[in-house]
Amino acid sequence: MSKERLWEFVSDLRLFLTIDPYHRRVLPMRRPIGEGTHLAIEHGLLGVTFFRFGRVLGWNEGSGYSFSDLSSRGPRHGFPHIFEVTLESHRDSGREFSTLRIEVKGRWTARPVPAVLRSWWLRFTCGLHLRMLRRKLEDLIE
Amino acid sequence: MTHYCLRCYRELRPAPSHPDGTSDGKAEVDAACPHCSLQYDPLDEQTFVSFDILSPWAAYLLAFLVLLFGGGCFLVSTNYNEGVGWAIVLGLPVCAGAVLGYSSSPGRFRAWQKVILGIMLFCGFVMVAGLLGGVGAGAFCLVTLGIVFILPFFFGDWIGYVIRRWDERKQRGWPRRWMKIVIFLLLPFGLDAIERLVPRDEDLALVETQAVFSASLERSWNSIVFYEQIEHEPPFLLRLALPRPVGTTGGKAEVGDISRCVYENGYLVKKVTNREEGHLLGFRVIEQKLHFEHDLELREGSFRVESGPGPGTTLVTLTTTYRRLTYPAFIWQPAETLVFHTLHGHVLEGMRANAERELAVDSAATAPEAIGRARSLER
Hints:
Chain A is an alpha+beta fold. Chain A has one domain: Alpha-D-Glucose-1,6-Bisphosphate, Chain A, domain 4 (2-Layer Sandwich). In chain A, 27% of the residues lie in helices and 40% in strands. Chain A has a six-stranded antiparallel beta sheet. In chain A, strand 2 (38-45) and strand 3 (48-60) form a beta hairpin. Chain B is of the alpha+beta class. Chain B has helices at residues 25-29, 56-79, 86-102, 106-131, 137-170, 174-197, 217-225, 236-240, 329-361, and strands at residues 204-213, 245-250, 258-263, 266-276, 280-289, 296-307, 314-324, 376-378. In chain B, helix 4 runs antiparallel to helix 5 (137-170). The radius of gyration of chain B is 30 Å and the shape is elongated. Chain A binds chain B through residues 27, 29-31, 37-38, 40, 42, 49, 51, 53, 72, and chain B through 6-7, 29, 32, 38-41, 44, 46-47, 166, 169.
């Protein structure tokens, strides 16, 4: 898939960011979307839905963006984290390839949770996210 | 229609518009909550919430319905004479609060919270005034009942408001909202019906109060058996809200004797069922008319007389067994225990005074040491 086509898919935040185990709805609070645009991200977990809020931290048209995902109680509560979405293109034997890289950095605030459980939870979430993305991208390519 | 912020639920100021009715494009782009700075798009109704609250007439109608259903539920429950239960004490105020919370906008919800907190403060004030002797029995009972109901109502109000917020975010229409209000209204009846389906064993409770008399066993026993008239001043709680015992008529000399305890606005008829001379006087309540027949049913009681902790003293234990008719027990039991201890204490105080008065005029009987006033050992 070309980088342009992939960007077209990735830059539709309402659609792309809901390909996530916990994101149910993403509402960009201003149009056009750019650096500084606030986001309301509806999360769902075990049948309970709640909003978290963030903002677009960086926006490089065609190359990627980053945004924060913070608790409504403030940036120090409820696992504050940021997503960095980066697109790269490669050429090999005349064919064009694109790489989609999603990096999540956060601060674990639930201290009573044991480290083993925490790392299992993060691995499980990332694995699930990867599987969902792969399935969606395969559908897109077909 | 008023718009509210998706994060803090405070009112959003409308974007300034031109005199010709068109809005300022820049203002729309820069629209943000003045309280938490969260942006919103005035043209995208998903980025804010609009609580279209009920019209005043619909709200009055709803309040009337809540009162009607609540009153109906209460009457149905008490007419069946199976007492006040979980559905009435917790279910009804929670559901009534939920209707209020669900039909409120954020502004109205905050205003009601202030009103409820104000009522709670007022109740606290009336309770303090009551303890100082400044209010009457009716007000005291009303406030006690209010305190029992107001916390679940407060909780229900919050639950209703949270559900409404949820529905607003999901942008659900009024048909579904009305359905929820109807569910809230009918829920107490459902809970009451379920409560009746669950068999409830006869719940007997026992309250025991002890007092130490500075008199011999014999005198203490006689003061119980020949006790007739209460002359001393009743304690505060009896003066305020409870049936005040006046005296006793009838005999207690043999098993089968019937005595009648007279209260200011009622009576109890008791039959002696057990008598061990100088030690135990047991009785069964065969008739009760004290104006709290819906709350509890007196069953039996006893006076037990034993040697006291010091020389020349007697320990008298007054026990009452009753059937509980009001639930949940954890709410009413402290009040029931307080009522019985107060009544017991008042009666025992009269008996103690009689026993010790006889001691004072009879020079033959001497107590090695006086231990002062009766001490009530409440259990």
